[in-house]
Amino acid sequence: MLCIVSFIVLSILGIFSASNRQLAREALDCVLRRVTLRPCNTGFDEKIKAKILGVVITRSEAGARFLNRHFELLSWVAFFLLLGSSVMAVRGVYLFYVTGSCNGLNNSAFCVFDPTGQNNQVSTLGQTCSLSDNPERGVTLKNVDLSDWPVLNAGASNQIVMVGCYACDYTRKVYPSIRALVQKYRPEFRFGEYQVKEQTDLLTRVGYCVYHADPEKYWAMNDVLFTTEKANLDDPSYVHQLLASLGLDANQIETCASDPQTQTRVEKLLNEIRRTNFPGTPTIFINGVPMVGPKPYRVYAIQLEGLFYWMK
C-alpha cells in the first residue's frame, strides 16, 4: 500500500517539483498494478523504500532495521491512516456544507472553514455576543405555546420559529436570510423578540401592540428595526416616528404598550420563549430542529427542503 500513499503525497508535491511529478507517475503505475493484484514493474516500491531507509539509517540503525523488517506492515498502517483521515476530511466538508460546522449542527469545536466560530455565536442574556459552550443542549419547542407569537403563513406545512433580538449583531446578520427563506418557500414563520442586551421589553410590547393592530405593518416594522442603526433602538422618539411613518397611530400604540394588560401578555410570551431553553440570539427552529447562531442561508434551505439528514 506504499504506492497508494506515495501517489497521493507525490501528486501534491509534484505541483511544485518536476522530479516529484515523475515519481508520482511511477506511483500511479504501481497503484494500477497493485489494485489488480500484480506486483509493480517499475521497482517503485523498492525505490521509495530505499529512499526512506537511507534517511532513517543516518539517524538510527536500529530504527532502519525495524523499518526494513516491517516495511509492508507499516505501509498498510500508513494506508489505513490516510484512508481514515480522508474519510474524516470528506465528512467535515459535508457537515460544514449542510450544518455550517465541520463537527455537526451547533457544534462549537474548531472548524477550519469557520475558524472564528461565527456560525455558532450568539448574544447571551445580559452579555455581549459570545460563543455558547454547548448551545444545543435542551433547546426545544416541545410544550412551548406558540399561539401568541407573531406569525406569517399560519398553517403552512413547513415551519420556521425564530428567537431574535433587534440589538444583536448576529440576529441582524441572519434576519435577511430568514426573511428571504420565508418569501421563497412560504413556511409558517413565527418570531419571538427577546431583548438580551437591554433591561427593558419596550420594543417587545410595542411589537405586540402593532401586531394586534395591523399584522402586515408589524412585519414592515420588524424589517426596519433590523436594519436601522442600533442607537435608534434606544430612542423613543425614533420609535414614535417609525410608527407614524408606517401609517399607525403612534400615540395609540404607545398607550397600548404601557397598558398593564399588555405587560401581562408580553410577559407570558417571554416566558414561552424562555421555555425553549434558547442559549442566546439568534436561535432558529426549522421544522423543530434547533439551530443556534447565524448559519449560512444554504443550511436553513437544506433543512427546510429536507434534503439531508443531520450527521453528528
UniProtKB/TrEMBL annotation:
SUPFAM superfamilies: Thioredoxin-like. Keywords: Isomerase, Membrane, Transmembrane, Transmembrane helix. InterPro entries: Thioredoxin-like_fold, Thioredoxin-like_sf. The chain crosses the membrane at residues 73-97. Residues 155-294 form the Thioredoxin-like fold domain. It holds the Pfam family Thioredoxin_4. It comes from the Bacteria. One of its GO terms (molecular function) is isomerase activity. This is Protein-disulfide isomerase.
